[in-house]
What we know:
- The protein is mainly α.
- The protein has helices at 6-14, 20-44, 50-76, 82-115, 128-151.
- It has one domain (19-146).
- The protein contains 5 helices and no strands.
Amino acid sequence: MRFWNTHSLAEDLKANRVTEREQAHYLIGTLFLATLGEYGGLLAHSEPNFWLALDCAISLLAVFVGYRLCAAANREGDDKSFVVRALSLSWPLCIRFIVLGILVSLPLMIVEQMRSGGHADKSDTTWVDPLLTLLLSTLFVWRLRTWIRYVSGQVAAV
């Protein structure tokens, strides 16, 4: 993997010298850095909070372990086009999980506002946040891996 030399990577991509496995590493690395950047901004602009740090750790672990499990599932099948499959299948799954996240978190927020008499600070991260992140991340990886197994020819139906 190249960490700095974009020109060298571009030349290898142009000459078709980047393997499927290397492409998967670039995908996982990019998602990992994007997640780290997102949480880095949150951590930098909020009070130190164990639950936010735990939420960040769960997200980073989900990206790293989840996409590695999906890449392994793709290799067990026809071992083709993992990056294209993972990105393409992630799109509708992300939309579904955003809707699911709203449907799960909105009632929790309403209950918390009612419990606190309308004075709950919505910016505070509590134990609920890492729990929801763990639940939604696990479900996302499970569904993505299931679809990748289907596309790669491991299972006949989903």
